[in-house]
Every structure is written in structure tokens, then in C-alpha cells.
Amino acid sequence: MGWNYRVVHRKFDSTSYVEDLYFIAEIYYNDDGSISSYITYSEDEDGMRKCFGDVKLMYPSGQDSIEDLKGCLEYMTQALERPILEYEDLLKLSD
Questions:
Q1: Which pLDDT does position 84 carry in this prediction?
Q2: Which of 1, 39, 55, 80 has the fewest Cβ atoms within 10 Å of its own Cβ atom?
Q3: Distance of CA 29 to the CA centre of its chain
């Protein structure tokens, strides 16, 4: 099972002050290439999560060094070159 970062699009209803949100998520794949699961957030040492509505947002981090942070940012940047996923499709994985 492999993984990568992907950009995810979420469309909000007309009652929200934001209509569209784009964010980065970790996407995990089955052996056949289909998506098996996803993670949309990172936690810091205090267990804090950055949230937007009910979406907990991923943010870059380096565990041991600035080089780790640079590597994380490089992987996240690669997500901008991949097709965008729809949040509603990811929700269907947990059904």
C-alpha cells in the first residue's frame, strides 16, 4: 500500500461564507491503485489541530530538523501536479 499527498476540493453549501475550499490530504492506496483511506490533519505536540468547519487541515511539519520540514513541503508541493480529488468522494470511503 502506497501513499502520497493530494489536493482535495470541498464545495460548501450556500449558507457558508466560503463556497470552495482546497486543502492537502494524505491519501493511501490499495494494491490496485484505488484509494483505501485518507488523513486530512496533522497534530502538534499539544494535540492541536487546524480546523476549517468540520475539516481538520494538514500542515507541513519537520519532526527532527529543518531538512525534514523541507522534505515535507516538497512532497506537499507535488500534490499540486496531481489531479484534484473531491471531498465528497472521499467521504464515500467510510460508508
A1: 98
A2: 1
A3: 14
The residue extents of the domains of the chain are 3-94
3-state secondary structure the chain: CCEEEEEEEEECCCCCCCCEEEEEEEEEECCCCCEEEEECCCCCCCCCCEEECCEEECCCCCCCCHHHHHHHHHHHHHHHHCCCEEHHHHHHHHC
User: What is the tens place of the pLDDT at every residue in 38-78?
Assistant: 887 755 555 555 555 666 777 787 778 899 889 989 999 99
Cα–Cα–Cα angle for 80, 21, 57, nearest 5°? 80
C-alpha–C-alpha distance, residues 42 and 38, integer Å: 12
Is the model's pLDDT at 80 over the cut of 70?
yes
Q: Indicate the length of the chain as a whole number.
A: 95
The grid coordinates listed for 66 are 529543518
